[in-house]
Write a structure and sequence with these properties.
With about 270 residues, the chain is an alpha+beta fold. It has a domain of about 120 residues: lpxc deacetylase, domain 1 (Ribosomal Protein S5, domain 2), CATH 3.30.230. Helix content is about 20%, strand content about 35%. Strands 11, 12, 13, 14, 15, 19 and 20 form a 7-stranded mixed beta sheet that branches. It has a 5-stranded mixed beta sheet with strand order 2-3-9-4-5. A 3-stranded antiparallel beta sheet has the order 6-7-8, with no helix packed on it. Helix 1 packs across helix 2. The mean pLDDT is about 95.
Length: about 270
C-alpha cells in the first residue's frame, strides 16, 4: 500500500484511435504525493476528474485550451500496475492506441521497472453505498476490504451479455484485464469513418465484430466486458486514489464513470500507519 513511480522514463508513439494522428508520449518518474499528471506543451493537467472535458467516445482531459484524448488505457495500465506518481508528456492530440489494449503499456512499465516510494498511497474507502445511474446504466460503489469489480455488459449479437467478477490487483490486472482490446461492430466502423471519426480504427488497433462473430481470435471468451473493466479502472484513476471498494457496473461507459468518480472523489484519504 505504498506509493510508487517508474524507475526511469518510458516512451512510445503511434496512431490515435479516434483522430488517426501520430502522437508521442513520454512517461517520466514523479515525486511522492505528486500524483499522475499530463504535460501538454506548457500546460500542466492533473489526472483528476476535475479536468475531464469530454466523454463522448473516450475520456478527454484538458485545461486552458489544451487537451488530450483517450487517456483511459494508459491511466488504467499505470494504476493497475500500482503507479501512483508519474508525469505524462504528450506530443499530439491523443494517446496512441497500440493494439487497442493496455498490454503494451504494461510491458513497457515492467521493462523500465517500478520504484516503491516511502509514503502510503492515497486510498478511497467507501463507508456506505453510493449509487449513480442514467436510464438503464448504473454504477454502485460498496464498502469492501479490497478493490473488486462486477461488470455486466450487454450488446447486440454476437457479443450479447457478458459478465466479469473479480478482485483487482497487480497480478489479476496484468493477466486478465490489460490484454483485453477495445472493440466495435463493422457497421459502426463504417459509419464512424463516414463521419470522420475512428480514423485510427483497424484490425490492428481494435477487436472488430461482424454479425457472424469476431474477425480476429479472441483473447478471452468475454474479452468485451474485460475491456470495459479496463476502461473503468482507467476512469477511476481520476479519483487520485486507490479505490478500496466494490464497484458494481451495469452497461456503464465513460460518462457514467466520470459521474461516479466525481461523486466519490471527496472521500479519498491516506490511511495512517
Amino acid at each position: 500500500m505504498m506509493q510508487a513511480t517508474l524507475r526511469s522514463a518510458l516512451a512510445f508513439e503511434g496512431i490515435g484511435l479516434h483522430t488517426g494522428e501520430q502522437a508521442r508520449v513520454e512517461v517520466r518518474p514523479a515525486d511522492p504525493d505528486e500524483g499522475i499528471s499530463f504535460v501538454l506543451g506548457d500546460t500542466y493537467v492533473p489526472a483528476t476528474v476535475d479536468y475531464v472535458c469530454d466523454t463522448s467516445r473516450a475520456t478527454v482531459l484538458g485545461r486552458d485550451g489544451a487537451s488530450v484524448s483517450t487517456t483511459e488505457h494508459l491511466l488504467s495500465a499505470l494504476v493497475g500496475m500500482g503507479i501512483t506518481n508519474a508525469r505524462i508528456h504528450v506530443t499530439g492530440p491523443e494517446i496512441p492506441v497500440g493494439d487497442g489494449s493496455a498490454a503494451g503499456f504494461v510491458d513497457a512499465i515492467l521493462a523500465c521497472g517500478i520504484e516503491t516510494q516511502p509514503r502510503p498511497r492515497p486510498v478511497l474507502r467507501v463507508e456506505e453505498p453510493l449509487f449513480v445511474r442514467a436510464g438503464d446504466k448504473m454504477i454502485v460503489a460498496l464498502p469492501s476490504p479490497v478493490f473488486r469489480v462486477r461488470f455486466m455488459a450487454d450488446y447486440q449479437a454476437p457479443i450479447g451479455t457478458q459478465y466479469f467478477d473479480g478482485e483487482i490487483d497487480v497480478a489479476s490486472y496484468r493477466e486478465g484485464i490489460a490484454p483485453a482490446r477495445t472493440f466495435g461492430f463493422i457497421h459502426e466502423v463504417d459509419l464512424l469513418w463516414a463521419r470522420g471519426l475512428a480514423r485510427g480504427g483497424s484490425l490492428e488497433t481494435a477487436l472488430v465484430f461482424t454479425a457472424d462473430g469476431p474477425l480476429q481470435p479472441l483473447r478471452f471468451p468475454n474479452e468485451a466486458v474485460r475491456h470495459k473493466v479496463l476502461d473503468l479502472i482507467g476512469d477511476l484513476a481520476l479519483l487520485g486514489a486507490w479505490p478500496q471498494c466494490e464497484i458494481v457496473a451495469v452497461k456503464s461507459g465513460h460518462e457514467l464513470h466520470a459521474a461516479a468518480t466525481r461523486a466519490l472523489r471527496g472521500r479519498a484519504r491516506v490511511p495512517s500507519g
